[in-house]
Amino acid sequence: MKITNLLKQSSIKIGAAPGNKGEAIEQIVNLMVSGGNVKNREAYKAAVLAREDEGNTAVGEGIAIPHAKTAAVGAPGLAAMVIPDGVDYGAFDGQDVRLMFLIAAPEGGEDVHLEALAKLSTLLMDEGFRESLMQAKTPKEFLRVIDEKEAEGEKARETKDGFRVLGITACPTGIAHTYMAAEALEKAGEAMGVPVKIETQGSGGAKNVLSADEIKNADGIIIAADKNVDLARFDGKPVLITGVQEGIRNPERLIREVPARRFTTTPEKCRPQARAARASAGRSTST
Questions:
Q1: How far is CA 277 from the centre of its chain?
Q2: Does the structural domain 165-280 have CATH classification 3.40.50.2300?
Q3: 270 an active-site residue?
């Protein structure tokens, strides 16, 4: 799935200026409708607002990705909005939202919204990419920036020397933060010269699953999760357990520290530590 296959120029607005979160959602819903993907505007908007009631879809770093899967949608689609001055969206990190992507998925179909959400969350972890989107002058240029980024990501990753650090990321809903943490850890590893592979345990199931050989040869394991993860397969390996937000915010520190963690890992021993890590983080990841 390519983002640019779901996003039309008519559904992109550059230089939006909503006064509040409600206005931002209103405007981006209109953009989605203009793309021809929505059969019933009011029903779709109600589904988007209902999802917001479950948990704020601002994912931090000035980004919000509202989404809904409903019978009011005729075909999968995306809408996007650049808000140069930002809008208060109630984000967990306190930052105003400057980039919004809205996802529409038809009821009863494949989980296109989850796939799109995962891919967007991953791409948007790149600060340079976000800034390029913010600087786009036209919808056409906005699409070009995305197309180039997706093409870059399709290049095969070299793994001939194996992975030194492995990990699992997961959050209660298994959506945006799961993939943002995975991307942050893998990008940090690349910058540090440490090959890193992260398994994501998302709503669509486990992706990029770690193999037995990879686990055997790894220097250590990072578990950045806000829910219980079965750790039996990591028995005897150094394991660092923390919350998903730490995976997003401090990936370099986690990669540096994990080889020093020399305790035996079983679900019985590690799950209390995971609960303690989540309690100390004091944050929820509902997006």
A1: 21
A2: yes
A3: no
pLDDT classification of 84: cutoffs 50, 70, 90: very high
Q: To 10 degrees, the CA torsion angle through 105, 109, 111, 113?
A: -10
203: its two tokens: 């709503």
Read off the pLDDT band of 133 (50, 70, 90): very high
Catalytic choice (67, 113, 177, 270): 67
Could you write out the three-class secondary structure of 106-171?
A: ECCCCCHHHHHHHHHHHHCCCHHHHHHHHHCCCHHHHHHHHHHHHHHHCCCCCCCCCCCEEEEEEC
CA distances from 29 to 24, 103, 104, 110, 134 (A): 9, 10, 10, 22, 20
Q: Given this model, what pLDDT does residue 124 score?
A: 87
Catalytic residue, from 113, 171, 177, 270: name it.
171
> Helix and strand tally (H, E) in the chain?
11, 11
3-state secondary structure of 190: helix
Hey, is 9 helix, strand or coil? strand
Q: Rounded to 5 degrees, what angle do the CA atoms 117, 21, 30 make? A: 70
Architecture of domain 3-153: 3-Layer(aba) Sandwich (3.40)
Between strands 63-64 and 58-60, the pairing is antiparallel
Above pLDDT 90, what percent of the chain? 45
For residue 206, the cross-strand partners are 201
- How far apart (Å, rounded) are the C-alpha atoms in residues 86 and 17? 8
In this predicted structure, the answer to whether residue 135 has a pLDDT above a threshold of 90 is yes
Q: What is the pLDDT of residues 168-208, one digit of tens each?
A: 999 876 577 888 898 889 888 888 888 899 999 876 678 88
Q: Would you list the domain boundaries of the chain?
A: 3-153, 165-280
Instruction: Note the pLDDT of residue 173.
Output: 65
Please tell me the distance from the alpha carbon of residue 237 to that of residue 218, in angstroms, as a whole number.
8
113 as an active site residue: the answer is no
